[in-house]
Design a protein that fits this description.
Layout (H helix, E strand, L loop, with lengths): L2 E6 L3 H5 L10 E3 L15 H9 L1 E3 L5 E2 L1 E6 L2 H19 L4 H20 L6 E9 L2 E9 L8
Antiparallel strand pairs: 1-2, 1-5, 2-3, 3-4, 5-6, 6-7
Helix pairs in contact: 3-4
């Protein structure tokens, strides 16, 4: 079974924290590549929040604070790879379509690795910090809870 994560917003307040919030239910990746040259001086609080804790939606290219692990089919993975490659060409000036596709494949594979040992419906949170060596990402898994029917 192939796994990846979808963006999820629990309430409207999540949407107000980002300049460009992801749509609920988009396939997501870390999107750390967007912060390769990050310098938080002079950035908005929304941009700082996106840097610190935002996953990247693969359709809107907006951000979400949480993602949820779900089953994905190969055709959806291929569509996500192509969306990311196109985005990298248009927004980040990748030198060629081939280079953009290699980067997109790497980004999706990395996200698959984060999800592969997680149960379906596990929530994932990300925390980024800027260090002397560049951007560091840490991940936290919040396991699904059994419903309390008592």
């Amino acid at each position: 079974m192939l796994k990846l994560a979808r963006t999820i917003h629990f309430d409207e307040a999540d949407l107000d924290k980002f300049d460009c919030p992801a749509e609920n239910g988009e396939w997501a990746v870390s999107g750390g590549f967007a912060f390769a040259n990050w310098a938080d001086a002079g950035t908005t609080s929304e941009a700082q929040f996106a840097f610190a804790s935002g996953w990247l939606g693969g359709e809107s290219f907006g951000r979400a604070k949480l993602v949820i692990v779900a089953q994905i089919h190969e055709v959806e993975l291929e569509e996500l790879r192509q969306n990311l490659a196109d985005h990298m060409l248009k927004v980040y000036d990748a030198p060629s379509a081939d280079v953009a596709m290699v980067a997109a494949i790497h980004e999706v594979e990395f996200m698959q690795e984060l999800c592969e040992d997680q149960d379906i419906d596990t929530l994932l949170a990300i925390n980024r910090v800027l260090t002397d060596d560049g951007v560091r990402e840490q991940y936290r898994a919040i396991k699904p809870q059994a419903p309390n029917i008592n």
